[in-house]
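user: Please review this fold.
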Amino acid sequence: MENSLIKAFHTRNLLTLFCGLSIMAIGVSLSKLAALGTSPIASIPNVVSYLLPVSIGNLTIIFMIILVLLEALFLRRDFSTLNLLQIIPGSCFGFLIDFFMKVFSFVKPHNYLEQISLTILSIVILAIGVFLEISSSSIILPGEGLARAMAWSLKKKFAVTKVIVDFSMVVIALAIALIYFHSLVGIREGTIISALCVGPLVKLFRSIKSKLS
């Protein structure tokens, strides 16, 4: 536990994590501006942002805290300080999303071709950010944290529980949109493309890194 904390707070690891979070936030911000749906991790805050007068960044922070609480339910006595500390990068991620929403506020796609192009660009950027987050060997985001907690508790592979977590987020976001808006507000084809493509892109980047190492 102590060695994990020391490694997580190594300066290089923290810088890599911050770069990853920043790039992920850019990806989420651009997908939000494209208005074709965001990644699974941001899908629920995105839909709720159309429902409440609260920014997607602040809603993301609240959502991250909820995910950490869910981790505690799965881990129980094995819930550690390292799990609780996931709130820090989770909150940072939320603040960065709002920051980049303002930075890129000038981006206004005028037709579907521009929307889908911006969505694809956001997915590539998001995958780069996720790759850096994973490569940082620092504190992970609560989304991955919950998947790991479920894998440990249910004795399943992380890849399986990660799919379950992402799928559950999309289903909940879809349910909220249909119940309150009776339409696919905030969750559209961009969410599906992101769910299908981010994982393979991250694997591709990791493969390229291993070949260059």
In short: The chain has a mean pLDDT of 90. The two ends are 28 Å apart (CA to CA). The chain has one domain: 2-212.
